[in-house]
């Protein structure tokens, strides 16, 4: 599982936060749906695809586990319609390095789904990416807002299709644990810390933190920073126009330290958090009845995929609330994976056409843990009210969004395991009192990666 992340995007607060807050306060509808066609499709095909008998297509992405399995159902439908054979190629972070090795060896995949804005720019700069063909472009123009189309363009040329998006400002909670402790979903950071204190005092650690995966820690920081420092500062820091030693970063890290600095708040304490990978951070929150390993877990709508691996039901046992406001407004961070062709083949373009259509997205949406920026997707494709309303809120935001901070950065700083921002924030999780040291490390790594 990789952030969604989604290259990730930061959507402006008002439209999305308001809609999400209303939607997420509901308990959901238990996940019932209308009967579906093959592989979860909701209607007859709306996109025409060429016949590709005997053609072999490889698709690379950093998705694993249930996320990969659900995407494979989409690929099987493509095979059925075209006669092509599609193979999923598991990629590793950073995906630019993975693809570079494949290309250097003369065996690039036909299509890759890139989880970072910087990765698309790098693919174009390295002359790996192929411009979008007319059929895929037509689907994109018909189904996507200008903002999402712009995300997939470099230098005015359209290269990518944002197939998958995510709202990454969500905190999922174990309903039984909250009820047992007499806790209500908080709306502010102060209320979150108070709830964490009550939960931990009741015998259930408050939060399951996936510290082994540094990308989750960047998301914690970004939500706090966006809400506390505001969008103007956020944009400046994202472009490294202000330094990581800025006082606004100090304030955000100090705030994050209020949570990370309480060992009793974290499932397994700091050492346990640092050894916990994202999938486990979710599953351990929704097993054990009213005494799970933790009462809450922070991350995007894709958490639902991992909840599905437990006995908990989204909308009943597993509920969700928006990331609490730290400053004047609650933050909303989103992201997405952009599909790009790496070979000038008919099969690659046909797959991009399919991925830009509502047909593909509705198959994936029916599986859960997936949100599409495709505005032609029927909301009934989503398996429960929570995910349906998250998707509606994403579409309602229109073009009013900005990129996730770490995904705007060079991969060496914002997207590499064991390095840059990921490593600095893991060290901060281990020692939250060292705010100044963390800032100095972040600034040194950022200056090196940005070349300034």
From TrEMBL:
<dbReference type="Pfam" id="PF01547">
    <property type="entry name" value="SBP_bac_1"/>
</dbReference>
<keyword id="KW-0732">Signal</keyword>
<dbReference type="InterPro" id="IPR050490">
    <property type="entry name" value="Bact_solute-bd_prot1"/>
</dbReference>
<comment type="similarity">
    <text>Belongs to the bacterial solute-binding protein 1 family.</text>
</comment>
<feature type="signal peptide">
    <location>
        <begin position="1"/>
        <end position="28"/>
    </location>
</feature>
<keyword id="KW-0813">Transport</keyword>
<dbReference type="InterPro" id="IPR006059">
    <property type="entry name" value="SBP"/>
</dbReference>
<protein>
    <submittedName>
        <fullName>ABC transporter substrate-binding protein</fullName>
    </submittedName>
</protein>
């Amino acid at each position: 599982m990789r952030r969604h992340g989604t290259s990730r995007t930061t959507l402006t607060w008002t439209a999305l936060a308001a809609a999400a807050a209303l939607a997420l306060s509901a308990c959901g509808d238990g996940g019932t749906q209308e009967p579906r066609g093959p592989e979860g499709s909701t209607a007859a095909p709306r996109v025409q695809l060429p016949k590709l008998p005997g053609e072999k297509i490889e698709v690379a992405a950093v998705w694993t586990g249930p996320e990969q399995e659900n995407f494979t159902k989409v690929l099987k439908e493509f095979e059925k319609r075209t006669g092509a054979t599609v193979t999923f190629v598991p990629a590793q972070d950073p995906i630019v390095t993975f693809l570079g090795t494949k290309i250097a060896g003369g065996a690039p995949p036909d299509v890759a789904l890139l989880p970072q804005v910087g990765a698309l720019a790098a693919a174009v700069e390295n002359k790996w990416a192929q411009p979008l063909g007319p059929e895929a472009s037509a689907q994109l123009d018909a189904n996507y807002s200008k903002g999402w189309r712009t995300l997939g363009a470099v230098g005015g040329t359209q290269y990518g299709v944002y197939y998958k998006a995510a709202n990454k400002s969500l905190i999922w909670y174990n309903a039984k644990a909250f009820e047992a402790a007499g806790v209500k979903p908080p709306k502010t950071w102060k209320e979150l810390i108070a709830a964490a204190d009550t939960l931990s005092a009741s015998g259930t650690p408050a939060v399951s933190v996936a510290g082994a995966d540094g990308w989750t820690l960047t998301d914690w920081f970004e939500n706090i920073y966006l809400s506390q420092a505001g969008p103007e500062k956020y944009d400046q820091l994202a472009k490294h126009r202000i330094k990581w030693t800025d006082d606004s970063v100090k304030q955000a890290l100090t705030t994050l330290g209020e949570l990370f600095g309480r060992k009793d708040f974290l499932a397994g304490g700091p050492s346990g958090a640092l050894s916990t990978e994202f999938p486990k951070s979710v599953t351990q929150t929704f097993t054990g009845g009213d005494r799970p390993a933790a009462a809450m877990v922070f991350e995007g709508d894709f958490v639902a995929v991992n909840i599905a691996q437990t006995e908990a039901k989204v909308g009943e046992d597993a509920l969700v609330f928006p990331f609490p406001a730290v400053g004047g407004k609650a933050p909303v961070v989103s992201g997405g994976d952009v599909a790009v062709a790496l070979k000038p083949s008919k099969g690659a373009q046909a797959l991009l056409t399919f991925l830009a259509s509502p047909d593909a997205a509705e198959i994936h949406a029916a599986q859960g843990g997936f949100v599409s920026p495709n505005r032609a997707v029927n909301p009934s494709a989503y398996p429960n009210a929570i995910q349906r309303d998250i998707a509606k809120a994403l579409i309602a935001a229109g073009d009013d969004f900005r990129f996730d901070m770490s995904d705007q950065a060079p991969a060496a700083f914002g997207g590499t395991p064991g390095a840059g921002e990921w490593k600095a924030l893991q060290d901060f999780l281990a020692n939250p009192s060292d705010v100044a040291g963390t800032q100095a490390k972040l600034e040194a790594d950022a200056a090196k990666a940005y070349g300034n």
